């Protein structure tokens, strides 16, 4: 008997603003969503974990990717919602405008990437299990998916389950559940990479896992 695919209750992914994301993101927002110390922490973390010659998928990308400077020989493919924002991003080598909530299937070939990242945007994903499975498809065996999050959000576009969870630990567990439900990953790892412990900078956390098989 075949196992039934895992699914979350639909209410988990309802949003206060359930209008088309294409409308919400139509106007470019050339701003960063975490403070400069947190941005530098993202850069430092990615410099540590991404091979210098990696082909990297930057999902939910914008006008900045917070990748290491200089980027080394990394080839970065950015997939986001706004063409103007993507065009302003100097670290992207390829730019793809694509609405992941409308269509989580990625317009990308299988087993292409050495790593994938989502930076402070996972809270907006309405079909995470489908998307995580698609990310796995595009990764090489052993390649890693890094989901970076903070406590900032557009509240009207964040999904209900994210807003209902009381702290970063529970949100990290939720992301780990996305990995488990989409299958084909090793054990997700949770990291606290917050620049400070006194609240003087935005907190920063990572959940990452590698493709197996």
Helix vs. strand class:
alpha/beta
Please state the average pLDDT score. 89
Instruction: Please indicate the count of domains.
Output: 1
CATH class: Alpha Beta
Q: Name the CATH superfamily classification.
A: Vaccinia Virus protein VP39
Query: Any guess at the CATH architecture?
Result: 3-Layer(aba) Sandwich
Low-confidence stretches: 1-5
The CATH topology is what?
Rossmann fold
If strands are numbered along the chain, what order do they take across the biggest sheet? 3-2-1-4-5-7-6
Succession of helices and strands: HHEEHEEHEHHEE
Radius of gyration: 16 Å
Shape: globular
Structural account:
This protein has 213 residues and is α/β, with parallel strands linked by helices. It is built from six helices and seven strands, in the order ααββαββαβααββ. Helix 4 (128-138) packs across helix 6. 40% of the residues are buried.
In a nutshell, what does this entry contain?
This protein is of the alpha/beta class and 213 residues long.
What are the SSEs and their pairings?
Layout: H1 21-24, H2 36-49, E1 55-61, E2 75-80, H3 83-87, E3 94-97, E4 113-119, H4 128-138, E5 139-149, H5 160-164, H6 168-182, E6 189-192, E7 205-210
Parallel strand pairs: 1-2, 1-4, 2-3, 4-5
Antiparallel strand pairs: 5-7, 6-7
Helix pairs in contact: 4-6
Primary descriptors:
213 residues; alpha/beta; Rossmann fold; seven-stranded mixed beta sheet; 6 helices; disordered N terminus
């Amino acid at each position: 008997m075949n196992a039934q695919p895992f699914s979350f209750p639909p209410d988990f992914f309802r949003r206060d603003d359930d209008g088309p994301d294409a409308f919400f993101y139509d106007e470019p927002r050339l701003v960063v969503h975490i403070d400069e110390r947190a941005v530098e922490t993202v850069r430092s973390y990615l410099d540590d974990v991404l091979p210098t010659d990696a082909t990297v998928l930057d999902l939910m990308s914008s006008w900045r990717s917070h990748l290491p400077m200089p980027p080394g020989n990394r080839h970065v493919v950015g997939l986001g919602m706004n063409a103007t924002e993507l065009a302003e991003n100097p670290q992207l080598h390829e730019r793809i405008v694509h609405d992941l909530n409308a269509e989580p299937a990625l317009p990308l070939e299988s087993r292409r990437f050495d790593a994938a990242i989502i930076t402070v945007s996972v809270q907006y994903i309405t079909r995470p299990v489908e998307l995580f499975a698609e990310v796995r498809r595009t990764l090489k065996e052993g390649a890693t998916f890094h989901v970076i999050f903070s406590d900032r959000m557009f509240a009207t576009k964040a999904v209900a389950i994210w807003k209902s969870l009381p702290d970063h630990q529970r949100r990290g567990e939720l992301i780990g559940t996305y990995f488990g439900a989409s299958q084909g990953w090793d054990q997700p790892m949770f990291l606290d990479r917050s620049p400070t412990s006194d609240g003087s900078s935005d907190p920063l956390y990572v959940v990452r896992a590698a493709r197996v098989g």
